[in-house]
Amino acid sequence: MFRIMSFNLLCWGEGHRNYKHRIPLVCQIIREAKPSSFGVQEAHIDWMNALRENLPEYDFVGVGRDDGKEEGEFSAVFYLRDEFTASDSGNFWISETPDVPSKGWDSACIRIATYVKLTHKESGKEYIHFNTHLDHVGRIAQINGAKMIQEKAASFGGVPVVCTGDFNVLQGSDCYETMISANMGDARMMAPDSDECYTFHGFRPDEIQHIIDFVFVDKATVRPVNFKVINKLIDGEFYSDHHAVYADIELI
To answer: In three state form, how does the secondary structure of 108-148 look?
Structure first.
């Protein structure tokens, strides 16, 4: 069984919620959950350096979305380096020109998707982990982003696929329905042991409770066993303005 996590870190934050103060909290959440692989959103290069320094058991693939190197937010995928080997990794931009840093359709920001093919060293089992952060404004860009991920996932010819991300849409939206219209399903809805908690709260959970962070899986090759939202404070503090989520999966 493998644990797949999605985690919007919040790139900056103000005052005591500045990212520098939240680094230990974020790393604690990840260490306690110990995902096999996890996708991050809103991870600028300082976040990436902090994760590398504090979580040496993980390696990653991914680039900054603004220049394809280190500028802008990463949608990186981290994986346990002692348990997996990585191959066939890549990135594509959610735009009409996916091979170069670019803003597409009605998107407000440059958006990127990252993927990596992981092989479990002990069992030889393989899966591909996609991760993205879709636009918060552009409805067309959201839908087309979902289509691009679906098409790229299908190109791997039946290798099990998981996709994590902050999709910036609710269940039932056009983008969400696009993601589950073909071979993919929502692990939250598929898992027999699931969680109904919201994922985005903006530090105001009494006022804001949205489900916009997802783990999608290939219905033919991946069986979610459980799905969990990590709804907790650490020493009375929020670790991000999103709750991290994870699904424990079996490969069929």
So the answer is: CCCCEEEEEEEEECCCCCEEEEEEEECCCCCHHHHHHHHHH
